[in-house]
Design brief:
By secondary structure, this protein is an alpha/beta fold. The strands form four sheets. The protein has a six-stranded parallel beta sheet, with helices on both faces.
């Protein structure tokens, strides 16, 4: 993502300001069920209101594949944002075209308009220059405050900044500064915990971190690929066999960089996820061919906890087990609680990001115990 300066009063006063935000929130029966991403953009919106900007919000929701899907409309999101902000938020059922222009032209300074789902138009995800031009025609200034989507080559992310004076919102600015500071020399020693299902989605992240951190913990399905690379029997566990060579490269780089690579030594396993199936908490060596690893074991979690005790910074992305299914959430929850405790004791600077990671932290009821929680998934990586 480009390095954008933070906006100021002179940039936006009395101007039509296009603000790219991430309002991709869950909705059930026209009610938003998680307002985290709505509250995250409030600092930018409140300052723009104070600065007398004419605020035009751009967002996507879901994956409608360039077609109109009423279930993915932003109409109910506008209502929820209005309740949280305590100020009217107008809604337009179109994003570009005559109706959108008319809605924008009605805006007065300090007012807010939310346009319909960007992804109802194929030009958004294809980064069509014509689509970006139509968006740009609606405003005079562009602000990116959608950190979670800033890694995507979409029209509203990379097309618009080429056409208008462009700035960062408070959320984007805060996210970028927090992540940058986490890898500074003064942040050492650093422990990185990388989980999730697939190593292929996090290769670049692992390659970067292995040369920068003291401890690199791998969990989830990612760990299984590392275990296979180290010639462990992983039974019937999920892994990416075509990524074993990449795992071997990272293992080699860890030795060269004197990075302590931590893999599971004990695991929670089962034959399947059926509630009636027995769960085994066993050393890795005792795993049977018919069993699958679904979580790291308590001894491995304790080892991670010990690393955290001797770290100054932790960066966490991805659960270390299949947390959606109990009891395979135990180690992820334990790690969340350990990090939160050390953070509250002012012994650790903690940064976590990604939807599943935040879900684990919320399940552990420790979201207030982290130094910084990033709204981004792919952008965080």
């Amino acid at each position: 993502m480009a390095n954008l300066p933070l906006f100021s009063l002179k940039d936006v006063k009395n101007k039509r300001v296009l603000v790219r935000v991430d309002l991709n929130v869950p909705v059930q029966k026209n009610n938003v069920t998680d307002i985290t991403r709505l509250t995250a953009v409030l600092p930018t919106l409140r300052e723009l209101i104070k600065d007398k900007a004419k605020i035009i919000l751009l967002s996507h929701r879901g994956r409608p594949q360039g077609k109109i899907d009423p279930d993915l409309s932003l109409h109910s999101v506008a209502e929820a944002l209005e309740d949280i902000l305590g100020q009217p938020v107008a809604f337009c059922s179109e994003t570009i075209g005559k109706t959108a222009k008319e809605a924008v032209n009605k805006l007065k300074s300090g007012e807010i308009l939310l346009l319909e789902n960007l992804r109802f138009y194929p030009g958004e995800e294809s980064n069509d220059p014509d689509f970006a031009k139509e968006l740009a025609d609606l405003g005079e200034v562009y602000i990116n405050d959608g950190f979670a989507v800033s890694h995507r080559a979409h029209g509203s992310i990379v097309g618009l900044p080429k056409l208008l004076p462009s700035f960062a919102g408070h959320l984007l600015d805060k996210e970028v500064r927090s992540l940058a500071s986490a890898l500074e020399p003064k942040a050492q020693p650093i422990t990185a915990i990388i989980g999730g299902a697939k190593i292929s989605t996090k290769i670049a992240l692992l390659e970067s971190l292995v040369t920068k951190v003291r401890n690199l913990v791998v969990g989830g399905g990612i760990a299984n690929t590392f275990l296979l690379a180290l010639k462990y029997d992983i039974g019937n566990s999920l892994c990416e066999k075509d990524q074993v060579s990449m795992a071997k490269q990272i293992i080699k780089q860890a030795k060269k960089s004197k990075c302590n690579l931590i893999i599971p030594h004990d695991v929670r396993a089962s034959r399947d996820l059926d509630a009636r199936s027995e769960v085994y908490h066993i050393p890795l060596a005792e795993l049977q061919k018919s069993e699958s690893i679904f979580d790291i074991g308590s001894k491995t979690a304790e080892l991670i906890g010990d690393c955290l005790q001797h770290s100054r910074t932790v960066i966490w992305n991805g659960p270390v087990g299949l947390f959606e299914h109990q009891p395979f959430d135990r180690s992820s929850v334990q790690i969340a609680q350990d990090i939160a405790r050390l953070t509250k004791e002012r012994r650790l600077n903690s940064i976590a990001g990604g939807g599943e990671t935040l879900a684990v932290i919320n399940r552990a009821h420790v979201s207030d115990g982290f130094s910084y929680l990033s709204t981004g998934g792919g952008a965080f990586l």
